[in-house]
Amino acid sequence: MKKILPLFLFGFLCQGYAQFSAPVTVEEDSHLVTHIKPADLNNDSFMDLLVVKKISSDVITYYLNDGEGNFGPETSLDAGFTIYTQIAVGDFNNDGWEDVVSIGDANNELKIFINNNLSFTETVLDTWFFFDSDITTADIDNDNDLDIIAVAGDTIKVLYNDGNANFTMEAISHPMIEDFIEVTTTDIDADGYLDIITGGSNTSVYKNNEGTITYNPTLSNSSINQSDSFLIRGADVDGDGDTDLIIADHINDGVKWYANDGNNNFTTSQIVSDSGVQIYNGEIADFNNDGAIDIIISEEFDVVLFTNDGDGNFTTTTVQDTEDLISEVTTADLNNDTLPDIIWSYDLSYQLNNTVLALDSFAESTSIQLYPNPSNGHFFVKSPTPATIQVYNLQGQFVYKDIRIPEGIQPFDLPLAPQTYIVQITTATTTKTFKVLIE
């Protein structure tokens, strides 16, 4: 049994650092975990944990969250024997249940598991030979349903969804010799369409022109072309209103962020971490609720948090120091307090985010309201001061961005497909996050 050496992040309110609870173990000796994906599988408004294990008879399993800090027993979703499986989630047939897609099982298959009240129907969507792979979901063609983007070996494919989990597949051409290990989406140029960025032997950008994906040689051959890149995220790091890029590799270049000059040029990079220690995984979120995007990574035996001051300057804090390799770290709000908690594995464990808001921010945040919830898409927002609204899907991708509202009670319509979304309302002094269900 390994020993956990707890590092408590005490701090005064004025420090602005996130504070986390001591680790809570979901499953011991789960060192074979290679991927953790939070998702509300049973529609109870609490985030459950999907887990991928290598060299195991049960490749994909899940643990149900009761909302009180307890997770149910491990339940198998997919059996097999592999070391390369990746997963993603989304409601592909618009029935209100989170489905699962996987790539890289023992049979080199891309599969979908349609969820009907925790009864999963498995369908093979494609088969091709690969070594490393990755998969994500996004509404590529802006038709209000989730598509699938998959990379494996030297191939990238987009599976366009008709809204009923019927897919039309398109292979995307690219001129470079690629070894894909990462795929993500972000709207680089703020045109309302999500672009695709891949990592691996190169960092490559694929521009989305109203649903048509093409390789972008200018951005792909720019300063962001970091080799061995695997953690790629788009976010406004420096608070200037455009999408910057966060890119990490396993060891050579560490973690960097690339500033968008407002014209989609990424000429300036800043080092977040260059410790030289191998990085295994990571994610981004606003952990201290100050409106700025922070970064958390698994760095060999440590979980490390980089806290952003809002201008792209980061302070490093070790959240967890163990004697065993931490292969995976991710984030989700496990107890519905609007704060992102962290989940990691050697032992499958979580730590609740106990960050306390400053008193003035707390008072204002409690007066921000969004109702009714659930809704048919017609909401009202109550805010004591002018505010800006961001809307994300459960994969963390923008659905609507920078919607400005005046103070008072305002109607707010979300003409979106029935499923769960994240709505973030930001005033000059605070940010409040809501999980809303459109029925």
From TrEMBL:
One Pfam family this sequence matches: FG-GAP_3
Keyword line: Signal
UniProt superkingdom: Bacteria
Residues spanning the signal sequence: 1-18
PANTHER family in alphabetical order: PROPROTEIN CONVERTASE P
Entries under NCBIfam families matching the protein: Por_Secre_tail (TIGR04183)
Name used for this protein in its record: Por secretion system C-terminal sorting domain-containing protein
Organism for this UniProt entry: Pustulibacterium marinum
